[in-house]
């Protein structure tokens, strides 16, 4: 058996158990019922209208437009949600029109599909909105090719847009009355998690806070960047997030001094949460201490209480570098044309979609446009690693098809089908929160019911759907996975090296008395750590052939987080009376971190760092030495593949 096929055979047996665990494990605490109910309403309402009018086809496209738009809603500020959902809906309408116009033109259709695949892959590099738009452009092009509906393509595209507008109106209905609702909720969530840090100092709680803080900054700043002129309230929310970061660092510094934070400060943080939610104003008394860390903590909490009480914002520093529209376009352009992985993805997607379209035109499979849909969804680059998605898609579709078959056998054709359609539409957002295979489990029967309403195909549609899905997954594995060795690995090594470099940049300016770039570089460092953790979490869901090797990075990741936290804690103490470290000692630490990053990228074992022995740098030196030791062990454990992409 060829090595590539043996690799696939070995991994197939390892994906199913992990997927089944995802299906049966308890639901997340943050399960959101509102999007589930909204999805059910926007999908079933146009279908109900179509059935009442005696022309179900009239309701199919609005239902699809509403579903595509709602699935693109991942939360955030109202402005950010509008951009992402609107981009997905508009791209879907354009895609449907292109597909409908290209239908029936023989092999020229393959060229159209390849061209749309290239455009889809390119615009997917444009952040959240580009990713959603690229996916819907390709998906609706395929549906336009495979689902012949009566009426001209432009009118049908407008019908699709009607569903898009309906979904947008429902999702954004509270915007006029509560314009800052999402931003305020994000800041309150930050302070709720911050309260846990007063009693729980473990790495998991710190990581949870960092993730919540990053989401808070993203939500507030995405809304703030659109405000005309100065928005005092959103500026105050940014300042509150800055104070939360200072409290976190002071708590870490206090922990390093083996001291417990005063109970009154924990109560003060709880009062801040109540105040932000509309309760009474918080307060904290003055306090003097010989501990720099304790002084830093009192100062940070006092600043937060003043802001929560309506105090003025003084000298706000944004932890992100504002980018103009031209700068954003240039950044996207550079990712597309100068990013090797982006170019490879364009080639892989165009190749697989071209082959899938050719298979569809050959007429070997009934409703073979489902083959192209499977390829488009499985190859989406920001949904995780390809192999796991391909197998989970097949498994999820198998389970979903079995469920759909039972429903089609039991529920008679007609209005009664709207009940299971509503149920599975509501479950789609839940599946998106959990697992790709679980989402496919809910999506497969939903698609079957929609097609059955249109064609009255009955239970036989289930077998057709399953065969087409398996064929699409096979195309992805044979043409989009096996020939591309870089797709076999998770990019944990490069993300780790990027995080080390970002930490070095932060450390270089962390003790600058002017502090002009410190907040920005600290946020970049923690964002790089979050990207590293995301790549790691995706990789550990892969089969053991990948995940066993990837888990050896965990000690090194923990050591790097300790370096960043030690830096932030030392800064907090230094700002409140502790002796500052020397410039030479800081330069030695920065050089050591830069060397570690370069060694990881080159796949070398790093040399022992030469650091300045100073009392003020003791904890930072210890953290950097620990990082060097764990990276050396990681390099040996992976057989020299520490820098593998």
From TrEMBL:
Residues 358-478 form the Integral membrane bound transporter domain. It comes from the Bacteria. It is found in: Cell membrane. The chain crosses the membrane at residues 39-61, 82-101, 107-125, 155-173, 345-364, 370-391, 398-430, 436-454, 466-484. Coiled coil: none annotated. Pfam families: FUSC_2. GO terms for cellular component: plasma membrane. Keywords: Cell membrane, Membrane, Transmembrane, Transmembrane helix. It is a multi-pass membrane protein. Its main location: membrane. Belongs to the YccS/YhfK family. This is Putative membrane protein YccC. The lineage of its organism: Bacteria, Bacillati, Actinomycetota, Actinomycetes, Streptosporangiales.
């Amino acid at each position: 058996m060829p090595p590539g096929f043996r690799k696939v055979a070995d991994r197939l047996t390892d994906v199913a158990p992990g997927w089944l665990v995802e299906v049966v494990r308890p639901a997340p605490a943050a399960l959101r019922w509102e999007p589930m109910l909204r999805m059910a309403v926007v999908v079933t309402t146009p279908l109900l209208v179509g059935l009442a009018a005696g022309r179900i086809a009239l309701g199919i496209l609005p239902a699809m437009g509403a579903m595509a738009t709602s699935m693109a809603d991942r939360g955030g500020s109202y402005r950010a949600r509008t951009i992402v959902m609107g981009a997905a809906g508009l791209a879907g309408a354009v895609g449907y029109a292109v597909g409908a116009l290209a239908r029936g033109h023989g092999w020229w259709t393959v060229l159209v599909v390849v061209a749309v695949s290239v455009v889809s892959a390119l615009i997917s590099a444009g952040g959240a909105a580009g990713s959603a738009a690229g996916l819907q452009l390709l998906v609706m092009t395929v549906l336009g090719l495979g689902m012949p509906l009566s009426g001209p393509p432009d009118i049908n595209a407008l019908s699709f847009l009607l569903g898009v507008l309906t979904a947008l109106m429902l999702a954004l209905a509270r915007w006029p009355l509560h314009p800052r609702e999402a931003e305020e909720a994000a800041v309150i969530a930050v302070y709720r998690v911050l309260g846990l840090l007063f009693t729980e100092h473990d790495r998991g709680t710190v990581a949870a806070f960092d993730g919540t803080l990053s989401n808070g900054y993203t939500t507030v700043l995405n809304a703030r960047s659109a405000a005309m002129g100065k928005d005092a309230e959103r500026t105050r929310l940014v300042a509150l997030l800055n104070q939360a970061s200072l409290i976190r660092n002071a708590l870490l510094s206090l922990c390093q001094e083996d001291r417990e934070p005063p109970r009154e400060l924990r109560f003060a943080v709880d009062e801040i949460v109540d105040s932000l939610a509309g309760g009474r104003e918080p307060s904290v008394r003055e306090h003097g201490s010989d501990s720099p860390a304790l002084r830093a903590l009192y100062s940070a909490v006092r600043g937060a209480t003043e802001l929560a009480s309506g105090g003025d914002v003084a000298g706000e520093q944004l932890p992100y570098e504002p980018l103009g529209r031209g700068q954003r376009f240039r950044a996207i352009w550079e990712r597309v044309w100068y990013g090797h992985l982006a170019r490879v993805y364009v080639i892989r997607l165009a190749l697989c979609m071209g082959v899938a379209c050719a298979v569809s035109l050959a007429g070997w499979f009934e409703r073979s446009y489902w083959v192209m849909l499977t390829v488009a969804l499985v190859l989406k680059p920001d949904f995780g690693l390809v192999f796991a998605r391909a197998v989970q898609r097949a498994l999820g579709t198998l389970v979903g098809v079995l469920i759909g078959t039972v429903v089609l056998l039991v529920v008679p054709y007609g209005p009664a089908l709207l009940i299971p359609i509503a149920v599975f539409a509501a479950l789609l957002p839940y599946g998106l929160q959990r697992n790709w295979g679980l989402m496919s489990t809910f999506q497969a029967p939903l698609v079957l019911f929609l097609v059955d309403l249109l064609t009255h195909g009955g239970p036989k549609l289930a077998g057709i759907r399953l065969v087409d899905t398996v064929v699409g997954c096979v195309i992805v594995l044979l043409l989009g996975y096996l020939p591309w060795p870089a797709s076999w690995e998770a990019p944990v090594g490069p993300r780790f090296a990027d995080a080390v470099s970002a930490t070095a940049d932060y450390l270089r300016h962390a003790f600058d008395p002017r502090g002009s770039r410190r907040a920005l570089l600290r946020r970049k460092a923690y964002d790089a750590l979050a990207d590293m953790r995301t790549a790691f979490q995706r990789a550990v869901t892969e089969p053991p052939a990948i995940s066993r090797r990837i888990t050896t990075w965990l000690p090194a990741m923990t050591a790097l987080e300790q370096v960043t936290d030690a830096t932030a804690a030392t800064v907090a103490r230094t700002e409140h009376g502790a002796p500052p470290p020397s410039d030479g000692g800081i330069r030695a630490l920065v050089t050591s971190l830069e060397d570690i990053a370069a060694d990881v990228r080159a796949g070398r074992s790093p040399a022992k760092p030469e650091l300045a022995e100073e009392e003020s740098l003791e904890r930072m030196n210890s953290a950097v030495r620990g990082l060097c030791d764990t990276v050396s062990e990681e390099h040996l454990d992976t057989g020299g593949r520490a820098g593998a992409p």
